[in-house]
# Entry
Amino acid sequence: MDGPLQRSWPWLLAGALIYLSFGFTEMMGSDLWWHIAAGREVIQQGSPWLVDDWSFTEQGSAWHNHEWLADLLFYGWVRVFGVASLVIWKWSLIIATFCLFQQLLTRISGNALAALLACTAAVAIAAPFLDMRPQLYSLLGLAVLLELTLFRSPRLKALLPLFLVWVNLHGGFVFGLMVLAIVLFPWRECSLAALRRAAFTWSACALICLVNPDGLRIFCLPLVYALNADSPYRSLGEWRSPFEAGGITSAWYAYSLVIGAALSLTWLLPAVRRRVRFSPELVAIAVLSAAMSATSRRFIILWAMAFALLLAPFAGALLRQKLVQPLMLPALLALTIWGGLRVAPYSLSSGIAFHYLTAEYVFPHGLADFVEANDLQGKTFAFYNWGGYLHWRSDGALKVFIDGRANTLFDDATYLDYVTVLGARPGWIETVEDSGAELFMWPRGRNGVRLTRGLLQTGRWRLLYEDVRGVLLAREGFALPVTLRLPDDSVDTQLTAAYLASKKGDTVATLAAASRAHEQRPWGRATCTWLRRSLQANGQLREAESVMEACRAYFPSKYLR
# Structure
């Protein structure tokens, strides 16, 4: 690959812009909060062998946190740069991963444009799942592993550190070991000596993975979580099959499966094999990842990279044709401009981007402020997705019934009891009260109004505080301060004032409070939405639309409506 158009940096620059543009997936970052808090917990307990101190259902039990190192890095980053700067961590990891992967695809395709197109396809398929969680380390680990081993002699001195770090970052190391077995297998010169070398290298990498807080158990946890079809946790949206309704979807996933299957089958044709070297390891990786992604949509990010590995050689064979060469420069310029145009509408301000990318606006900031203002502590039956945030804010003062740590700590019965309450199914009040909960914290949605009314009607619960996002109830007999303090003035208190005024039908007071909240945070999703509604209620329709246009200029969120 000679010539200025095959030099890596212009293509990597175009790639970096494109990959960044796919890093603006908006997703409720409910797990992110407990990951940060877990990093703090490792420091507080002085060990990666953690004992649960956040729940009242499993308090004192061993918590097998196989992502402890990732959590420690999260907390260290937050301590140095602040919580909102985690968007920079996310974007940096996405760009680093896919630029490295692009370099690999350039090597196996022989064409820089083919590599960029294939890598763009991968990030487009994976984009809905690229949220702020330790799984991004597994994508990077996979890219590094493939660069070290694919069509190369493996270097054990490079592989051992990779797996030693990977096993303590994320459970995706198990997939890494599967891929390693595929690429180490002597597909072209199968002999006993070659098999022995491959087995030795793979065994050494598997053995180094035992250096983790859970030892051999670490191999079972990810597989049990992923493959136990009977687990009620598989009903969570992110773990469902992509062919089931609900949950996160990838618009390009089904098309890529069809194209990937077609590309694999074309290798049966002798004419194709003469143009594109048959690579059984690429097909094997694709089959493995496709099968995994069909069982759980969480593995679609792995399939995305496998698909790019299949696509790149075919695209390279096509784009190496002389007739196509004059199109290389226009294609490079077009892709660079396209990437820039995709990034342009978004704010790179960490505070604004974090607010939208993690759906920060759905978490109980105001309720947590009230808890802190009154130094409340107790057993709290809280909304599942709020558990991690409460851990970060209360540091164990509020001990929850269940949270996003799922079956790394909680048994199936606990989750099923939670689902009973979530759905307000028969016996849900008994489930809450029999659990021993002293506090109840819930959003207004997700049956919140019905659940709140049901508990209050028993006469055994009282309303402590309500804000724009939810309610906090206390059980009869729960010790409270003589005088309850309200939180200090903030965006959340102003939004709460707007909410309470709207309940009374006072449109003037609602507009005044919403305006004050918007002045403090003119880019916030909740502040923009409340001000727009308030203006509409007061007949100021043109001003209402102007507010939303200004908000979308900060960040073009699909949830700003």
In short: The two ends are 49 Å apart (CA to CA). The CA atoms of residues 285 and 306 lie 6 Å apart. The first strand starts at residue 50 and ends at 51.
